[in-house]
Structures are given as C-alpha cells and as structure tokens.
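PROTOCOL LOG
Step 1. Enter all chains and additional molecules of the complex.
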Amino acid sequence: EDQVTQSPEALRLQEGESSSLNCSYTVSGLRGLFWYRQDPGKGPEFLFTLYSAGEEKEKERLKATLTKKESFLHITAPKPEDSATYLCAVQEAGSARQLTFGSGTQLTVLP
Amino acid sequence: DTAVSQTPKYLVTQMGNDKSIKCEQNLGHDTMYWYKQDSKKFLKIMFSYNNKELIINETVPNRFSPKSPDKAHLNLHINSLELGDSAVYFCASSQVLSNEQFFGPGTRLTVL
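Step 2. Run joint prediction.
Step 3. Record the structure below.
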C-alpha cells in the first residue's frame, strides 16, 4: 500500500530563517510527486509536480527536490505570508491518477 | 472566474438525514474527484469520474453516491448521515494528459 509520511508535523520559523520540509514515500512505481499549499478554510493549491529523481523546481522562495525515496521542499528566507500547511502527494504508476496524500506540515513564519 | 466551485460551503444537519454537495468546474477538464479531509487533515480519495464514467471507487460506505450529469459537474449524495461523516469534502478536477489536480474550496459537513 502506498505510504506518504511528512515531517515535521509543525514548524515555526522566524522571518528569513530558511528550512526544509520532508516527504518520504513508498510506492511500487512513481508517476509523480506533488506539492500543495493549503491555507485555513481553503482547498489545496497546486505548487509543483516532480517526476524523476534529481528533478528540481522553483517558485519564488520555494524549491522542491526529488530522490528515489523522498522529496524536500526548501523554503529560503520565508515571509509570514508563507505560513500555511504544505501537503505532499504521490501518484502511483498504473493507477487511475488518484493522489495519496501525507498529513502535511503546518508552517508558521513569525515576523 | 472560479475554476472549481462547490456548494454549499457549510452544511450542518442531523443524523439520519440525506444531503447533497454540488461541484462544478469551468476548466474544461475531463476528470473529477471527491476527497474527504478528516479532523487530522488527511486528504483521502473517495471517487473519481472520467467523462461521466466512474473510474475510482475507494472503500466508501454505499451511503455515498456520486453522480456526474456531465463532464463539468460531479455531485455527491449522502444518505442516512452518521456522526463519523463529519469532515471537509473537497472536489477536484484534472485533464487526462496532465497529472495536476485543482481543488475546490471545500464543503464542511457537520452531523449532529
């Protein structure tokens, strides 16, 4: 069975203090790994898709990387508006395209 | 210009009632999904429809029945609501050639 584990569960950073969120996964074959951002009371907002080990994608202060067992979401010099829950999800090769989500990392960036 | 919309936003009802949640997408996508997010924030797939055809039906009680009148709509009907059905339900959509799923704002269901 697919498993997606995110750590830490919660992370508090000072504004400007860079850090990384981790997503480890177990699938028989990976079609894609997805990062989403979820603000309170809202639906997940798509950030990145990674398809193969070694791939990296960047968007503003966020950079996502992928290995064969895990993905990292690096946050460089975060701002308070980056506070949100970050969700990782995997899509298994051969599946009907459903996403298997981790439980998320709740990030709080203090001014 | 909302991409994926759901109604209602909030739904409070008594145990045993029947209720429906509606979802519409204007992205031209051909696949739509229903996810359930529990109190621990886990998002779990329930159903998926591709071109009005059911392609995913996870282990969900048969009190839950999805209905897709056309490619742009996927509704969720729930019979005989139970306390454990309380959660946030999200609709999502994607294009068959793209793996990216776009989510609606969610419907918070509270069963009393």
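Step 4. Note key features.
Chain A touches chain B through 23 residues (CB under 8 Å).
The CA atoms of residues 56 and 65 of chain A lie 5 Å apart.
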